[in-house]
Amino acid sequence: MMYDPPHPGESILDLCLAPLGMSISAAADHLGVSRKHLSAIINGRAAISAEMAIRLAQAFGGSPDTWLRMQVGYDLWQASQKAGGINVKPVPRAA
Q1: Which whole-number Å values give the CA distances from 90 to 38, 43, 87, in the listed order?
Q2: Distance, CA of 93 to CA of 28 (rounded, Å)
Q3: What is d(CA 80, CA 28) in angstroms, rounded to the nearest whole number?
Q4: pLDDT tens, position by position, 1-38
Q5: pLDDT tens digits for range 39-53
Q6: Is residue 85 predicted with pLDDT exceeding 90?
Q7: Measured between alpha carbons, how far is 87 from 8 in angstroms, rounded to an integer?
Q8: Among residues 11, 76, 41, which one has the least CA distance to residue 52?
Q9: Domain ranges within the chain, ordered by starting residue
Q10: Distance CA 7, CA 19 (A)
Q11: 16-51 in b/e burial notation, b at 16+ Cβ within 10 A?
């Protein structure tokens, strides 16, 4: 697992929008989503859903799986930082 991976919204901004000189509003229009929703993803306040992954793949390339793996990697890293506070009793195995 990557150490402290960036939120995938950063990748959208750095790898997709910036090279094209595209604004968030223009990208949201191309993706068929609201500017508010895309801005929330880019600013790390919202996650990439399966549907958004399909939209991103259609608009900018890559596969939906790649976009979702970036999100899962980010989410897993964030959760692992709180793992010490998660106390779950193991389920006993049948004999």
Answers
A1: 40, 37, 10
A2: 50
A3: 32
A4: 568 999 999 999 999 999 999 999 999 999 999 999 99
A5: 999 999 999 999 999
A6: no
A7: 29
A8: 41
A9: 8-81
A10: 18
A11: bbeeeebebeebbeebebeeeebbebbeeebbbeee
Tokens 């970036």 — which residue?
70
Fold category of 8-81 in CATH? 434 Repressor (Amino-terminal Domain) (1.10.260)
Task: Give burial (CB, 10 Å; 0-12/13-18/19+) of 7.
Answer: buried
Which amino acid makes up residue 52? M
d(CA 37, CA 28): 8
Amino acid sitting at position 87 = N
